[in-house]
Amino acid sequence: MINKTVNNVTEALEGIHDGMTFMLGGFGLSGIPENCIQELVKRNVKDVTCISNNAGVDDFGLGLLLKKKQIKKMISSYVGENAEFERQMLSGELEVDLIPQGTLAERCRAAQNGIPAFYTPAGYGTEVAEGKEVRDFDGKPHIMEEAFKADFAFVKAWKGDEAGNLIFKGTARNFNPLMCGAAKVTVVEVEQLVKPGELDPNFIHIPGIFVQRIFQGEKYEKRIEQRTTQS
Amino acid sequence: MINKTVNNVTEALEGIHDGMTFMLGGFGLSGIPENCIQELVKRNVKDVTCISNNAGVDDFGLGLLLKKKQIKKMISSYVGENAEFERQMLSGELEVDLIPQGTLAERCRAAQNGIPAFYTPAGYGTEVAEGKEVRDFDGKPHIMEEAFKADFAFVKAWKGDEAGNLIFKGTARNFNPLMCGAAKVTVVEVEQLVKPGELDPNFIHIPGIFVQRIFQGEKYEKRIEQRTTQS
Amino acid sequence: MLDKNGIAKRIAQEVQDGFYVNLGIGIPTLVANYVRDDIELEFQSENGILGMGPFPREEDVDADLINAGKQTITALPSASFFDSALSFGMIRGQHVDLTILGAMEVAQNGNIANWKIPGKMVKGMGGAMDLVGSAKNIIVAMMHTNKAGDSKLLKTCSLPLTGVECVTKIVTNLAVLDIVDKKFRLLERAPGVSVEAIQQATEGDLIVEGDIPEMKL
Amino acid sequence: MLDKNGIAKRIAQEVQDGFYVNLGIGIPTLVANYVRDDIELEFQSENGILGMGPFPREEDVDADLINAGKQTITALPSASFFDSALSFGMIRGQHVDLTILGAMEVAQNGNIANWKIPGKMVKGMGGAMDLVGSAKNIIVAMMHTNKAGDSKLLKTCSLPLTGVECVTKIVTNLAVLDIVDKKFRLLERAPGVSVEAIQQATEGDLIVEGDIPEMKL
């Protein structure tokens, strides 16, 4: 077995520096790599580009990096939950590349799987298609989208073993599996780090080959954005 | 819940006719839709195109359809296990399109996911690239490959529930999940048909939305091609 | 004239047996409350669940179980979870049968704008461009006019587009309309709303043929 | 001169700690038997397993657990199963560190042919084109000459290609070679084999620089 464990978040983030491009898993605040984000804030790494579906909220998730102005550019699909984000974007302090959510997912998956580019109908005829190749397939226009390139991917899984095999839980799965192996270095934090053999090989969501470093997250707040219950 | 069950293989294959294009799951003889294949032989449907990684052996799997000359064209990556196949191909009775295995998988997945085309390095500079668009990404040549188009997909899963949710076992998974939803109609045969709720929603390999018909296979031979054991 | 729940109630009649349905944020979410009991359907939420159930009881709230609006939800016994690539594969591959979403503007050729007001509001498109780029069957749920009283059913959209020539039906507080020959066609009036009132609230070309029935709710 | 097991034994020395390795059918499969115990590695089989173990005991044979050569196998505790798309994603995405495969012909520019003899033998390329199209590190395991005694290390391939300019190293029954400046470079001789014998068996241009050591097995 090839052992992927590192001792803690400090070791896990070795090699990060200013100006890099990061991928971060999660949808809203669900399934975000909380410990990695805290460490990014602590290290005060600057001028980074973040590929992440959302930008957190003002005081949690990627919002923490935004507040400290560590982010130069965001590549996201939806950023409506974050007032500071909107302010920085409208003032021009922050570069923003908004792209369709399915395209975001597929561009991660393409990077993971060695597919340099693919065609999708999403965004045809909109701002998103500007400057991109348009081609008809079966009489329907599609635009060409390219795989992402990133330096580090920060991923949160539910359980992982020492070989880097991962399992995600519920809708906290989202973009996390697609970012594994989509960057030069994939760092995974898990709620439960287990021994090889404890995960059923038939039900592993992401095999360890896509993971370079794995560690047990110290604590998880798992904040809820919209607590809705039955009346 | 949307119920996808049909009573038997006869109902499952309703609507098939001569000249159609079929996708069939399986690698070698592992994970092939045995009951569907038997029924295709019985109905003697002719002039069909089969998309399947392999072509079975002389007396099992797709070899049964070959023997009865039901197949007009095979789209496969490896057909070395079948003498009758080689005979029909070299004599020109059978059209054959041999394509790289990873490209075969990805073209199924593209059809399933509404991606009309993608780029891959596999086959560049070989016969496979003839007539295809070549484009450089990061200085490396890639060829454009298009999604498959098929009428029926025949898939074998290990367990499935009435909603069409599927679980595969071991390496019998192979192409099966990728063919679900990649054809106009997806027919799935399972070793165990269970009630909704019996499969853990976190460990379903293919959600029921990709499946039109599901039934419990009557019997499974599960023949082994190369029985190798420790000395 | 309908309220938001009324719009949702009317749209619920469009859901057919065996449909997989994606509901956008806002009014569309309310549609789930009004679908007839004898119809078998499943709700897909693009963040990664098929077989979405109602909101949880207080004690069942789970941070790892939310919908695309980031609301806590439950999963039905037939549910499954998946990653965002497969989720949008369901959408892009036209496996989802019906998409219901909100809009800021709809044009009479079926164009829709719902993600950006330049220089003012930029929340992003989320999954909307994927949905309207692929879905066969797109119903827009919205108020007929905006807060300033201006029509949202226009000759051409003024805001940045989300998708082109894609909307099939529109249900507003005033009317049900579809799109034919690049014009709006009036199909039903909301209770107590006259054809004239609808015409007045519609900036785009409106086809009115014969008697326009009142919605049955 | 080496036999098949000798070739496998020599190639096993190329496997480094932490490598994910894909083994082709034939000689490459034998490599697994000779890797040093203190090296951590995992074998990938492109039909959908990572963490492939040895052949099973008779009572553990499972039709649902085979390798790319259709042989029954076992899975290690660290194993995982996956579909063919993700499996070739590992290959295409260069996550697999080392590919070892057989060949009918290798050319001095790194071209390889191993899937078709026109009009005669057409088994198909299986996963070979994906492997050689993407792998960073490709070792060919083969006999130096074919059954007719003709060299398999050529100026240019005569058979239909599997991939272009991709082979990094070749281990045969006679020698270890790599490819430099579009020529074969002799690195090691098999025990008891002379440089002259290797030169004679090599149709392509052969670089011989200084003393060529004998393999240590």
From TrEMBL, chains A, B:
An MF annotation (GO) of this entry: CoA-transferase activity
InterPro entries cross-referenced by the UniProt entry: 3-oxoacid_CoA-transf_A, CoA_trans_fam_I, CoA_transf_BS, NagB/RpiA_transferase-like
UniProt keyword list: Transferase
One Pfam assignment: CoA_trans
SMART domains: CoA_trans
Family: Belongs to the 3-oxoacid CoA-transferase subunit A family.
Matches recorded under NCBIfam families: pcaI_scoA_fam
Designated name of the protein: 3-oxoacid CoA-transferase, A subunit
Organism: Psychroflexus gondwanensis ACAM 44
TrEMBL record, chains C, D:
Zinc-finger listed as a keyword: no
Keywords recorded for this protein, A-Z: Transferase
Domain of life according to the entry: Bacteria
InterPro entries: 3-oxoacid_CoA-transf_B (IPR012791), CoA_trans_fam_I (IPR004165), CoA_transf_AS (IPR004164), NagB/RpiA_transferase-like (IPR037171)
Zinc is among the record's keywords: no
SMART domains recorded: CoA_trans
GO molecular function terms listed in the Swiss-Prot or TrEMBL record: CoA-transferase activity
Family according to the record: Belongs to the 3-oxoacid CoA-transferase subunit B family.
PANTHER family given in the database record: KETOACID-COENZYME A TRANSFERASE, SUCCINYL-COA:3-KETOACID COENZYME A TRANSFERASE SUBUNIT B-RELATED
Name of this chain's protein: 3-oxoacid CoA-transferase, B subunit
